[in-house]
Amino acid sequence: MPNYNHARFIREALEAALAQSVPAREVIVVDDASTDDSREIVAGLAARHPSVRLLEQKRNQGVVAAMQRGLEACSGDYVAFFAADDQVLPGHFERSLSLLARHPGAGLCSTLARLIGEKGEDLGPYHTPRISETECFVPPERFLETYERWGSWIVTYSAVFRRSAVLEIGGFDAGLGPTADGLLNLVLPARHGACFIPEPLVLWRKLDTGYAMSSVSDPRRAISVIEALDARLREPRFSGLFSPSLLTGLKRHALALSLYEHARVHPDGLDDLAILLAHMPEPDLLDAAMKTALRAGPAAAHAVLKLYLFLRQKPADRLRIAAAKISGASR
Q1: pLDDT tens for each residue of 147-175
Q2: What is the 3-state secondary structure (H, E, C) of 96-136?
Q3: Which of 1, 7, 21, 81 is least surrounded by CB atoms within 10 angstroms?
């Protein structure tokens, strides 16, 4: 569990992990040179729970470096990476490990998630694809087909990873920034397959100051980490895992997501949206229409952006979004 100045959340996060029906062998907190009282809170819990261990970074190195240090310090066969502001729900470890025991070659097991706000208020489901109505294993030979149909369904903070599979690819690459987990979530299922539980077993705190949102305020940083991930996935060591069309689609999706988040947080930042759009690979008529709308001004840009992003979704996601809109309108 990486932590930086999350004193107001970390006790709740750790207590949720410690209360699991199948307890973790070790709970490692890597404090990234916090300036609040996070470390004192963790130390207090560690005094009562021998499984809790605090590792301290002498200087702030970022979330990815903290996660890598935790990975190298742990010793179990399976490892989960939970944020200090999120919560794991009852039964998560037991159900994930049970499914992994039935499919020991799998690279990971993930679940659905729900969003919560800063004060813990329920914000509804985190909309990732429900690829199955029952617990399942997607073998490596079916991963690309499943991904092409549904898109990415793996929520990193819901996942339990096979540690040897993570170490096999070097763990977390600091050069990938917020997309470092994306490498794991693509390579591990493509090589080893992935288990899935279609129930929300984690609460993901939605904060505009969170690490996942760190590149939204700077489109150039977003482009940099997206292109870095694309370059990693095209390296010879991953040769044959992904088709060029899938990698192009992945890059398009990542840029579209950055467009959405940037427009949500910075609605007047049209120039930044144009920068993101200019990096779309293999631009088509839809991209051209979006560029025209950006030149027409804020009203046209935001009206067209919603349609643009909707049409960029996988067919299954378009159906889900449309159904949610219809359901909301009928209430």
Answers
A1: 999 989 999 999 999 999 999 999 999 99
A2: HHHHHHHCCCCCEEEEEEEEECCCCCEEEECCCCCCCCCCE
A3: 21
Task: Provide the 10 A C-beta neighbour count for residue 246.
Answer: 16
Alpha-carbon span 313 to 325, nearest angstrom? 15
- Shared domain for 22 and 136, answered yes or no, is yes
- Do 139 and 219 share a domain, yes or no? no
Last residue of a domain, one of 155, 177, 211: 211
Residue 50: phi, psi to the nearest 5?
A: -60, -20
Minimal CA–CA distance to 298: which of 257, 270, 265, 271?
Answer: 270
Amino acid found at 79: V
Q: pTM of the full predicted structure? A: 0.90
Q: Hey, what amino acid is at 305?
A: L
Same domain as 122, residue 16: yes
Q: In the numeric block, which tokens belong to residue 248?
A: 């192009």
- Same domain membership, residue 59 and residue 8: yes
- The structural domain count of the chain equals 2
